[in-house]
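User: Okay, second chain of the day. Same drill as before: sequence in, structure tokens out.
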Amino acid sequence: MSENKFILGSEEWCSFPEIGIPTIKARVDSGAKTSALHAINIAPFIKNESNWVKFDINPIQNNLKTVIHCEAPLIDKRIVKSSSGFREQRYVIQTNLQIGSSKWPIEMTLTNRDSMGFRMLLGREAMSGRVLVDPEQKYLLGQPTPDSLKELYKNSEKASSGLRIGLLASNPELYSNKRIMEAGEMRGHEMHFLNIKECYMKLDAKTPEIHYRGGKILNQFDAIIPRIRPSITFYGCALTRQFEALKVYCLNSSNAITQSRDKLYSLQLLLNHGVEIPTTGFANSPLDTDDLIKMVGGSPLIVKLLEGTQGKGVVLAETKKAAESVINAFKSLNANILVQEFIKEANGKDIRCFVIDGKVVAAIQREAMPGEFRANIHLGGTASVIKVTAEEKRIAIKATKAMDLKVAGVDIIRSAKGPLLLEVNSSPGLEGIEGATNKDIAGEMIKAIEKNFKIK
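Assistant: Same drill. Structure tokens below.
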């Protein structure tokens, strides 16, 4: 009966006393079935012989300094398709929700909602039989003042550890860059976004400098995180090298990034370190096309532009005639290409291992769209959690060390011969792998810098 229900607006403040969240703003959405709570650093554990999960939350939107450490009984794990299209496995908890004077138990999934407008989503399952929603209203049960919010969370401020970290990149709005900035700030560091194109340098034996547009000298940085897009590799690596000359710690070195961007050299380097790859051919002249095709086992085969990224400049030639046409067309444009055997048994799937400081911190399987053979997320591929084998982990770590990278995305394909390495990416994207695994990869990158400075 409606007389037993109370009315909520489209946005309301609520609390979760049992897990220590005194107040949090929620989006009330009867169009969503389940409720979701923002959470990072999610980790299951055993407590009193029962399954529990611990996690951190920044309960106030756009405030990364306020952190609550939570624990709750774990009741389920579910595969959920997020609003961004990624399939992710989420942990489910049950705890008491309090709105106004009413309190009742609800189920919530835990997920990183940094890209969303609200830290909490209240879905219809939690409201069923109890609530009516007036979408034109907000905060019908009241809202805290800024002073009362500050008082409620006065003991939850994270102390600063004082590192000054620069993110050397091109687009501050890119998901990966936003997450790295947020992760650094959350861990108490002073973060600065440095646009590569707005930096310039002074080469001098006594006083080398890097300037920012307007003449500001970029000095006193403790660390730099280079996130250099392929089109500006030369200039971005020159800047990274200049920071290295200034004795600034760079998470990936200029030399490591440079060699990772040379696809032919990087494959030769990997082979020299005992990492297996699909059979690959390289030639300078169109006169060698026929033997080049035979070299990799004939058609179907893959033709790759050496300068291509994110699946661009990669073509599947299904017949010998098609292969000849594609190879000769690229050669007529003076383009450098690789020809590679096609691993049919992979079925349009590959594995992305995210390696940080010598460890595989997360892994996903990327699957191509129907009719497509490239599994890149940027080309519409989907990401899902996968358990990688010990051999696949070994290959990912070995490849990263061979390239002398601290942070890398290592792409591996499963073949009848065993796992083969496709590519090592020195600026891997975070959106697909964080969305699918619910892991704080950006935070792991910041931890790698802290480890260098012996910050615990």
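The longest strand covers residues 68-81.

User: Thanks, on to the next one.
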